[in-house]
């Protein structure tokens, strides 16, 4: 095992990703690669974090039929057609906005997927497997026919 005693650096990037469908799998691997290159950090860790509770980050294969399987699985786990207390605006009083929409299913799906992924950075390359790609998963269809803008933080820590 090689142990390096150099000075650690940190770079953080805020990026915006536009989404148009839910569930939607948006491959953001190249966006993250661009941040890695700009950071000039060669070895460390890359953290990709979604600042939303209705969009997730995951690492998976970018194979169209598999992505369709994931959409079916998410719907089986928490269907948009389900009954959610979060969607009962006659009772709910917490975290309400003027344009609040019924999106309990999106929050439940997020619970399954999570907010972030961490990827080792080795010799200026993310140590992803042959088929692994980084995805932003849009879970909220609240704005039908509109674009959602998702804020992500990419943080690279290392040398």
Please provide a written account of the structure:
With 159 residues, this protein is an alpha+beta fold. It has one domain: YjbQ-like (Jelly Rolls), CATH 2.60.120. The strands form 2 sheets. Strands 1-8-3-5-6 form a 5-stranded antiparallel β-sheet, with helices on one face. It has a 3-stranded antiparallel β-sheet with strand order 2-7-4, sandwiched between helices.
Query: If you consult CATH, what is the topology?
Result: Jelly Rolls
Low-confidence stretches: none
Helical element count?
3
- Gross geometry: elongated
Helix/strand order, N-terminal first = EEHEEHHEEEE
The class by helix and strand makeup works out as alpha+beta
Largest beta sheet, briefly?
5 strands, antiparallel
CATH level-two architecture = Sandwich
Question: What is the overall pLDDT average?
Answer: 93
Helical content stands at: 10-25%
Strand content: 35-45%
CATH class bucket = Mainly Beta
Topology:
Layout: E1 9-19, E2 24-27, H1 29-39, E3 44-50, E4 55-61, H2 64-77, H3 104-113, E5 116-122, E6 125-126, E7 132-138, E8 148-158
Antiparallel strand pairs: 1-8, 2-7, 3-5, 3-8, 4-7, 5-6
What are its keywords?
Jelly Rolls, 159 residues, 3 helices, alpha+beta, five-stranded antiparallel beta sheet, three-stranded antiparallel beta sheet, single chain
Briefly summarize what is shown.
This protein is of the alpha+beta class and 159 residues long.
């Amino acid at each position: 095992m090689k142990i390096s005693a150099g000075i650690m650096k940190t770079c953080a990037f805020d990026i915006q990703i536009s989404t148009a469908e839910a569930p939607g799998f948006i491959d953001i691997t190249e966006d993250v690669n661009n941040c890695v290159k700009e950071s000039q950090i060669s070895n460390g860790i890359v953290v990709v974090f979604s600042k939303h509770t209705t969009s997730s980050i995951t690492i998976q294969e970018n194979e169209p039929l598999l992505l369709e399987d994931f959409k079916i699985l998410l719907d089986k786990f928490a269907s948009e057609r389900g009954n959610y207390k979060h969607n009962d605006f006659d009772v709910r009083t917490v975290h309400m906005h003027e344009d609040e929409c019924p999106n309990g299913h999106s929050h439940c799906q997020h619970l399954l997927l999570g907010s972030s992924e961490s990827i080792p950075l080795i010799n200026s390359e993310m140590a992803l497997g042959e088929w692994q790609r980084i995805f932003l998963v849009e879970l909220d269809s609240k704005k039908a026919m509109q674009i959602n803008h998702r804020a992500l933080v990419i943080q690279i820590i290392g040398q």
